Amino acid sequence: MKRDFKEWLKKFKYSICDYKYYVDFEKVYGNIDSIRIELNILNSLIGSKDIENKFKLLVNDYPKILKCIPILLAVRGREIYAKDGDEEFLFNFVKPNYSVDEYIKFMNKTGLFSLISEHLINNLVDYVTGVEVGLDSNGRKNRGGHLMEDLVESYLVKAGLQKNIDYFKEMYLSDIETKFGLDLSSLSNNGKTKKRFDFVVKGNNAVYAIETNFYGGNGGGSKLNETARSYKTLALESKEIEGFVFVWITDGTAWRSARHNLEETFDVLDNMYCINDLENGLVKELFK
Predict the structure, then answer these.
(1) S-S: 277 plus which of 67, 150, 229, 282, CB 3.0-4.6 Å?
(2) What is the mean pLDDT of the chain?
(3) Domain assignments of the chain as residue spans, ordered by start
(4) Alpha-carbon torsion 236, 238, 243, 244, what sign?
(5) CATH top-level class for 5-19+139-286?
(6) Distance between CA 201 and CA 222 in Å, rounded?
């Protein structure tokens, strides 16, 4: 019985975010703890009227304080590039590669000395906590993707499937070919494409390769259209491979802005599902 696309789309969810989606505070606190001593040493510069000389003394006595400078500028890593007129610098804050005077110039020109000496902040540990929270928000996209993977995996487990026995995570086409003896060269462009599936399930009569994603909110633009088109191509190519089934589990109200491309894929991909399908026993039915 042919499914109704419009009715299926109505069941898409706005969000699947849990409480830990917004900020990973364990990661934030861990990052701060790794430089807490150095930040507290730098706290001695707050409000200083002679910050350049005091900074020089601190660097001479505690050179490791340099390693926490990048995060004060919301930069991760040990190096920062800076162009100054005709000169170019690549400051290393773990293995100092310039004189202390050059690092003092860096602190002045980036505005960090003003931030510290003019009482614009009262505590560098608190300041960096705010910076880390802001930077961690950039990780929401990755966490969102993992939320959908975790959700799908929870249904695989509830259905009695065992990891690395009945289902496998993040398998490349080449790994699937080796493990299950399939020829997937038509999908990999004869080995030139490094395609990876989120899950692979060994069924009784076929190997199921599963892609999962979630696009919440109100709009997704060209990214969603491109995703739908690429999976349509994958669906059509997969139909020609005996013993191999492509499954796409997607959801999210952002798809409503790209419903036409999604429907085109829906029309050619029989094994296309959403969270509502999972909730209604999809896994047991599909892999029985």
Answers:
(1) 282
(2) 93
(3) 5-19+139-286, 22-138
(4) negative
(5) alpha beta
(6) 30
